[in-house]
């Protein structure tokens, strides 16, 4: 039998994940609308993964599930974290390419989803383009996708912790 950790509860972890996601999304919107940084397709995709993770955390916080539900909630949040982390890694990789190897800029997101079949638009979106390789913001030498990847890793660990049997309900 496992002993619950005294401070941690699944509900506190769900609230932590929700607040982190809301904070990260709020800062992304702040940089877009007040600093004038226009998000590329990969940035928008990362935002979508943060929003999905926040929605899972909110539902889990409200429903306060028992162990099986905690496994499901933790698994869904971990899946969002892995998906978002993969997209962030792709963008970090694009940013590390020499300028001559950066892919050409592609069509806008609106054009892709209105004129291309969904599968092709999604594939084009995931490939990224020249806009995604541009570094326009840094903090302590790390670009926004680097920080996003760090956020996905931390939130993924919190999602795993929320499902552990030793964390009290």
TrEMBL record:
It is found in: Cell inner membrane; Cell membrane. Residues 1-13, 66-71, 166-169 are cytoplasmic. Residues 31-48 are periplasmic. GO terms for molecular function: electron transfer activity; protein-disulfide reductase activity. It is a multi-pass membrane protein. It holds the Pfam family DsbB. Keywords: Cell inner membrane, Cell membrane, Chaperone, Disulfide bond, Electron transport, Membrane, Oxidoreductase, Redox-active center, Transmembrane, Transmembrane helix, Transport. One of its GO terms (biological process) is protein folding. Disulfide bonds join 40-43. GO terms for cellular component: plasma membrane. It comes from the Bacteria. The chain crosses the membrane at residues 44-64, 71-89, 147-167. InterPro entries: DiS_bond_form_DsbB/BdbC (IPR003752), Disulphide_bond_form_DsbB (IPR022920), DsbB (IPR050183), DsbB-like_sf (IPR023380). Required for disulfide bond formation in some periplasmic proteins. Acts by oxidizing the DsbA protein. Belongs to the DsbB family. This is Disulfide bond formation protein B. It comes from Spongiibacter pelagi. The lineage of its organism: Bacteria, Pseudomonadati, Pseudomonadota, Gammaproteobacteria, Cellvibrionales.
């Amino acid at each position: 039998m496992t002993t619950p950790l005294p401070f941690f509860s699944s509900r506190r972890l769900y609230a932590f994940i929700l607040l982190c996601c809301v904070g990260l999304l709020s800062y992304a919107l702040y940089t877009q609308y007040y600093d004038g940084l226009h998000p590329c397709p990969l940035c928008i995709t990362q935002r979508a993964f943060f929003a999905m993770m926040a929605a899972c955390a909110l539902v889990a916080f409200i429903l306060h599930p028992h162990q099986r539900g905690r496994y499901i909630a933790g698994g869904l949040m971990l899946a969002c974290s892995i998906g978002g982390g993969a997209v962030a890694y792709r963008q970090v990789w694009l940013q590390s390419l020499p300028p001559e190897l950066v892919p050409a800029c592609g069509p806008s997101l609106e054009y892709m989803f209105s004129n291309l079949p969904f599968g092709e638009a999604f594939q084009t979106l995931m490939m990224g383009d020249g806009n995604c390789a541009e570094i326009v913001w840094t903090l302590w030498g790390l670009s926004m996708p680097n920080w996003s990847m760090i956020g996905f890793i931390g939130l993924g660990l919190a999602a795993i912790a929320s499902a552990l049997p030793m964390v009290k309900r």
